[in-house]
Amino acid sequence: MRCETTFIEGLRIIHPDCYGDGRGWFMETYSKPKYEEMGIDCEFVQDNQSYSARKGILRGLHFQNEPYAQAKLIRCTRGAVFDVAVDLRRGSATYGKWYGIELSADNKTQFFIPRGFAHGFLTLTDDVEFQYKVDQIYSKEHDRSIRFDDPAIGVEWGIDEPILSEKDLSAPLLADSDVNF
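The chain above was modelled as a monomer; its predicted structure follows.
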């Protein structure tokens, strides 16, 4: 298992070891001791999975305010996505900056996003299954969104007309949000 850092403190890219032969393959998708060695010391309490039927669906940018902020360990198990994390930690040298990575069933890459970030993804294929662990339960009261196309953030999604939910269409700009990190 190999771990990479990014220019944004706390974001980690994990490349699990995958062992294959003529029958198929095997990989360890999570091991608490191994992740702790990589600086990921979370007590994950919930696993989530989503399905997106079509290419071009954009989900995000989502987060939960304190005290229900969530760290996430993300992977794509069918199809491919462009996954994005936005630093919302006031006082951080990279506040408002974003990092994006392609996650796919083929590359088996995982993305760790600590608390204090907004998260979103764009489906790059049809029939996408997306799975992630979180270290805090879902709280509807603390659930928030930021506009995917907020010019102050400037995520380069690579699509002009994504398929969006009503929630994501009506999300505020970062400057108008009540983010409390």
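The chain has a mean pLDDT of 96.
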